[in-house]
Amino acid sequence: MTPSQLKRKLDDELSALLAASEEHDCGRLEFVLADRGDLVEAVTTLQELGITHLITITGVDAGDEIEVLYHFLRYGEYDDGDLGEGVELTIRAIVPKADPTIETLTDVLPGATLYERELMDMLGVEVTGHPNPEKLLLADDFDGGPPLRAENLEVN
Protein backbone atom coordinates (compact mmCIF):
# COMPACT_ATOMS: atom_id res chain seq x y z
CA MET A 1 0.00 0.00 0.00
CA THR A 2 1.46 3.36 -1.02
CA PRO A 3 1.51 6.33 1.36
CA SER A 4 -1.33 7.94 -0.63
CA GLN A 5 -3.45 4.79 -0.42
CA LEU A 6 -2.78 4.47 3.30
CA LYS A 7 -3.67 8.14 3.85
CA ARG A 8 -7.01 7.68 2.06
CA LYS A 9 -7.71 4.56 4.14
CA LEU A 10 -6.87 6.29 7.42
CA ASP A 11 -8.76 9.46 6.47
CA ASP A 12 -11.80 7.23 6.02
CA GLU A 13 -11.27 5.10 9.15
CA LEU A 14 -10.42 8.06 11.40
CA SER A 15 -12.65 10.72 9.82
CA ALA A 16 -14.66 11.37 12.99
CA LEU A 17 -11.48 11.86 15.03
CA LEU A 18 -9.37 14.10 12.79
CA ALA A 19 -8.95 17.86 12.58
CA ALA A 20 -6.50 17.54 9.66
CA SER A 21 -4.29 15.15 7.73
CA GLU A 22 -1.40 15.64 5.34
CA GLU A 23 0.93 13.64 3.11
CA HIS A 24 4.36 15.24 3.00
CA ASP A 25 6.58 15.14 -0.11
CA CYS A 26 8.71 12.38 1.38
CA GLY A 27 5.65 10.17 1.79
CA ARG A 28 5.39 10.68 5.55
CA LEU A 29 1.81 10.96 6.76
CA GLU A 30 0.57 13.23 9.53
CA PHE A 31 -2.80 13.15 11.26
CA VAL A 32 -3.97 15.76 13.77
CA LEU A 33 -6.58 14.66 16.29
CA ALA A 34 -9.55 16.95 16.82
CA ASP A 35 -9.56 15.96 20.51
CA ARG A 36 -6.70 14.52 22.57
CA GLY A 37 -9.27 12.25 24.23
CA ASP A 38 -9.50 10.26 20.99
CA LEU A 39 -5.86 9.13 21.09
CA VAL A 40 -6.43 5.56 22.30
CA GLU A 41 -9.24 5.01 19.78
CA ALA A 42 -7.07 6.34 16.93
CA VAL A 43 -4.12 4.12 17.89
CA THR A 44 -6.40 1.09 18.27
CA THR A 45 -7.60 1.73 14.71
CA LEU A 46 -3.97 1.86 13.53
CA GLN A 47 -3.34 -1.49 15.20
CA GLU A 48 -6.36 -3.03 13.49
CA LEU A 49 -4.77 -1.97 10.19
CA GLY A 50 -1.45 -3.60 11.12
CA ILE A 51 0.35 -0.43 12.20
CA THR A 52 1.80 -1.50 15.53
CA HIS A 53 5.38 -0.20 15.57
CA LEU A 54 5.57 2.91 17.75
CA ILE A 55 8.94 4.46 16.89
CA THR A 56 8.93 7.17 19.58
CA ILE A 57 6.86 9.89 21.20
CA THR A 58 8.07 13.48 20.94
CA GLY A 59 6.68 16.80 22.09
CA VAL A 60 6.91 20.45 21.13
CA ASP A 61 6.14 23.48 23.27
CA ALA A 62 3.88 25.54 21.01
CA GLY A 63 3.06 28.49 23.24
CA ASP A 64 -0.22 27.87 25.07
CA GLU A 65 -0.21 24.20 24.16
CA ILE A 66 2.06 21.21 23.83
CA GLU A 67 1.96 19.18 20.65
CA VAL A 68 2.50 15.51 21.46
CA LEU A 69 3.58 13.49 18.43
CA TYR A 70 3.28 9.72 18.23
CA HIS A 71 5.51 8.39 15.45
CA PHE A 72 4.66 5.02 13.89
CA LEU A 73 6.11 2.88 11.11
CA ARG A 74 4.05 0.66 8.85
CA TYR A 75 6.28 -1.90 7.22
CA GLY A 76 5.82 -2.43 3.52
CA GLU A 77 5.77 -5.83 1.88
CA TYR A 78 6.60 -7.00 -1.61
CA ASP A 79 4.62 -9.72 -3.37
CA ASP A 80 7.31 -12.27 -2.48
CA GLY A 81 6.88 -11.58 1.25
CA ASP A 82 10.09 -9.57 1.70
CA LEU A 83 9.86 -6.26 3.48
CA GLY A 84 9.34 -3.37 1.11
CA GLU A 85 9.29 0.37 1.58
CA GLY A 86 7.64 1.36 4.85
CA VAL A 87 5.46 4.35 5.61
CA GLU A 88 6.13 6.63 8.57
CA LEU A 89 3.10 8.28 10.09
CA THR A 90 2.54 10.65 12.96
CA ILE A 91 -0.50 11.16 15.16
CA ARG A 92 -0.47 14.67 16.63
CA ALA A 93 -2.43 15.40 19.81
CA ILE A 94 -2.78 18.97 21.06
CA VAL A 95 -2.54 19.32 24.85
CA PRO A 96 -3.32 22.72 26.43
CA LYS A 97 -0.78 23.90 28.99
CA ALA A 98 -3.69 24.90 31.23
CA ASP A 99 -4.59 21.18 31.49
CA PRO A 100 -1.49 19.22 30.42
CA THR A 101 -2.93 15.71 30.52
CA ILE A 102 -3.29 12.89 28.03
CA GLU A 103 -4.35 9.27 28.39
CA THR A 104 -1.73 6.53 28.42
CA LEU A 105 -1.27 4.19 25.48
CA THR A 106 0.27 1.45 27.62
CA ASP A 107 -2.96 -0.56 27.71
CA VAL A 108 -2.87 -0.95 23.92
CA LEU A 109 0.87 -0.45 23.31
CA PRO A 110 2.91 -1.53 26.36
CA GLY A 111 6.09 -0.31 24.65
CA ALA A 112 4.90 3.29 25.07
CA THR A 113 5.77 3.27 28.77
CA LEU A 114 9.29 4.75 28.62
CA TYR A 115 8.38 7.32 25.97
CA GLU A 116 5.45 8.48 28.09
CA ARG A 117 7.64 8.78 31.19
CA GLU A 118 10.08 10.91 29.19
CA LEU A 119 7.17 13.11 28.07
CA MET A 120 6.14 13.58 31.71
CA ASP A 121 9.68 14.48 32.79
CA MET A 122 10.71 16.77 29.98
CA LEU A 123 7.47 18.56 29.04
CA GLY A 124 5.36 18.18 32.17
CA VAL A 125 2.47 16.39 30.46
CA GLU A 126 0.64 14.14 32.93
CA VAL A 127 -0.05 10.79 31.30
CA THR A 128 -3.17 9.59 33.08
CA GLY A 129 -3.47 5.89 33.81
CA HIS A 130 0.25 5.24 33.34
CA PRO A 131 1.27 2.09 35.26
CA ASN A 132 4.58 3.55 36.49
CA PRO A 133 4.63 7.36 36.46
CA GLU A 134 7.97 7.60 38.25
CA LYS A 135 10.62 9.96 36.92
CA LEU A 136 12.76 8.47 34.17
CA LEU A 137 15.35 11.08 33.22
CA LEU A 138 15.23 13.65 36.00
CA ALA A 139 16.58 13.14 39.50
CA ASP A 140 13.96 12.54 42.18
CA ASP A 141 14.99 15.77 43.91
CA PHE A 142 14.87 17.87 40.71
CA ASP A 143 12.84 20.95 41.61
CA GLY A 144 12.87 22.93 38.38
CA GLY A 145 10.04 23.04 35.88
CA PRO A 146 9.89 20.72 32.87
CA PRO A 147 13.21 21.35 31.06
CA LEU A 148 11.80 21.44 27.52
CA ARG A 149 9.04 23.93 28.24
CA ALA A 150 9.82 27.27 26.59
CA GLU A 151 9.49 29.15 29.88
CA ASN A 152 12.21 26.96 31.41
CA LEU A 153 14.74 27.13 28.57
CA GLU A 154 17.71 29.36 29.23
CA VAL A 155 18.93 31.10 26.09
CA ASN A 156 22.55 32.25 26.06
TrEMBL record:
- UniProt keyword Zinc-finger present: no
Q: Decide whether keyword Kinase is in the record.
A: no
Signal sequence: where?
none
One GO molecular function term of this record is: NADH dehydrogenase (ubiquinone) activity
- Record-annotated NADH:ubiquinone oxidoreductase 30kDa subunit domain positions: 34-150
State the PANTHER family in the record.
Answer: NADH DEHYDROGENASE [UBIQUINONE] IRON-SULFUR PROTEIN 3, MITOCHONDRIAL (PTHR10884:SF14), NADH DEHYDROGENASE UBIQUINONE IRON-SULFUR PROTEIN 3 (PTHR10884)
Query: Can you tell me which family this protein belongs to?
Result: Belongs to the complex I 30 kDa subunit family.
What is the protein's name according to its record?
NADH dehydrogenase I subunit C protein
